[in-house]
Amino acid sequence: MTNSIIDGKQIAAQVTEKVKKRVEDLKAKGVTPGLAVVLVGNNAASQTYVNNKTKTCEKLGMYSVLIELDEQVSEEELLHKVEQLNNDDKIHGILVQLPLPKQIDEDRVIAAISPKKDVDGFHPESVGKMMIGQQTFLPCTPFGVLKLLEYSGVDVAGKHAVIIGRSNIVGKPMGQLLLQKDATVTYCHSRTKDLHAFTKQADILVVATGRAKMIDGSYIKEGAVVIDVGINRDENNKLCGDVDFASAQEVASKITPVPGGVGPMTIAMLMENTCLAAEITLNN
Ligand SMILES: Nc1nc(=O)c2c([nH]1)NC[C@@H]1CN(c3ccc(C(=O)N[C@@H](CCC(=O)O)C(=O)O)cc3)C=[N+]21
Ligand SMILES: [Mg+2]
What we know:
- The protein is of the alpha/beta class.
- It has helices at 8-28, 44-59, 75-86, 106-112, 124-131, 140-151, 171-180, 195-199, 245-251, 262-282, and strands at 4-5, 34-40, 63-69, 93-96, 160-164, 184-188, 204-207, 225-228, 232-233, 239-240, 254-255.
- The strands form three sheets. A six-stranded parallel β-sheet has the order 1-11-8-7-5-6, with helices on both faces. The chain has a three-stranded parallel β-sheet with strand order 3-2-4, with helices on both faces. Strands 9-10 form a two-stranded antiparallel ribbon.
- Strand 2 (34-40), helix 2 (44-59) and strand 3 (63-69) form a beta-alpha-beta unit.
- One of its GO terms (molecular function) is methenyltetrahydrofolate cyclohydrolase activity.
């Protein structure tokens, strides 16, 4: 099968180039889009993503602040920080990096973020609006996957999209967004019986299981488009996805690599959302 690798890094660069122009327009009107990233504790992987976010902000001429809190921080202190950021006019987007330590109730923290600054699209108000197709911030990873498909010329309408994973931040919204694009959507998860039977019917297979190289070529229909949302470390500590790339690319028509696939798109969409948040304040 002649297949093509979907170059997420290159598509992300195209997306951020457009964001950069919007940032310039905003600055000419006296507004610099600002993103606050709150990082609790010092998980090495989280640090990498956070650094990527901060670097990209700088490249696009956006303002960014990184707030690092101790692993032991109380929920109250974190909520107080979020409230400060809600009231800070220089900040248009707030991202509290997940997961949070166990003493903190994630749902409470997410609900405390102003929906106007919810550039992750995780607030219940944003999720509700997304469900009913109203304009809102879309969660960056599934939004990025939609863009990848669009830029790769994959028409979603009428296709059977199978999502493996049902998290609130990836799987669930991914299915909703594909449904809005007129795909026929099937959700699979860890309790699905006979996973092969479902995945083998997928025209578009989105894999978000969190298990390294779990999905090999045997799960994939000839010519399917495969989107790998996973980020794991393999036995040699090398970055890898939830898809076994080598065997999957033998059967897929298009496939995203890890790294260089969905990850860079997640960051690009965060920048787009932050820019949008700033534009909305200007128009109000
Ligand atoms: N509130 C919140 N929002 C998030 O969006 C969020 C989060 N919490 N917690 C963690 C996950 C993970 N995430 C990634 C972002 C970029 C890359 C990325 O840039 N990946 C690069 C390489 C990364 C590397 O070298 O480790 C790539 O795939 O090519 C990966 C993962 C955002 N997340
Ligand atoms: Mg927790």
